[in-house]
């Protein structure tokens, strides 16, 4: 019975992984939601890793790139999202450091300028607090937010 279940869900997991880049955590969650036995889940994940359907290092590179370019997230938020998926610090250090610093600062500046336009308050302290909260929620480092703030004000 376990062998039949393994084959059935292995096929489903392979299909799931072929649609988009997935990490081990994503696959485990997907199979768990389908009420697959935990022993079978472990065997399926091992098989997927061995066959290169799942590669956490490859996943991290794609995730960092997409989160930065499309979601406009800072390094801190990207790092937290990866930690929540059970990705090790070791795997995320290199891809996070490969984010182009010029692009990173340019994105932060454009986000702060856009947010500044949308904040309508006469109190400078409230304006600054609102803009900084926004930048922090996007995962940008406080010292960089301060640096860009000084540049645009």
Characteristics:
3 domains, Arc Repressor Mutant, subunit A, 153 residues, elongated, single chain, mainly alpha
Please tell me about this protein's structure.
The chain has 153 residues and is mainly α. It contains 9 helices and no strands. It folds into 3 domains: 2-54, Arc Repressor Mutant, subunit A (Orthogonal Bundle); 57-97, no CATH class; 101-152. The protein has helices spanning 2-19, 24-33, 38-50, 56-69, 75-84, 89-97, 101-118, 124-137, 142-152. Helix 1 crosses helix 3 (38-50), helix 2 (24-33) runs antiparallel to helix 3 and helix 7 packs across helix 8 (124-137). The termini are far apart. The relative contact order is 0.10.
Write the layout of secondary structure elements.
Elements: H1 2-19, H2 24-33, H3 38-50, H4 56-69, H5 75-84, H6 89-97, H7 101-118, H8 124-137, H9 142-152
Helix pairs in contact: 1-3, 2-3, 4-6, 7-8, 7-9, 8-9
CATH architecture name of the largest domain: Orthogonal Bundle
* CATH fold description of the largest domain: Arc Repressor Mutant, subunit A
The Rg value, from CA coordinates, equals: 20 Å
Instruction: Specify the CATH class of the largest domain.
Output: Mainly Alpha
Number of domains: 3
Largest sheet composition: none
The count of β-strands is 0
Mean pLDDT, rounded to whole units? Answer: 95
Low-confidence stretches: none
Helical proportion, percent range: over 70%
Tally the helices.
9
Strand composition percent? under 5%
Classification by helices and strands: mainly alpha
> Termini, distance in Å?
67 Å
Shape: elongated
Order of helices and strands: HHHHHHHHH
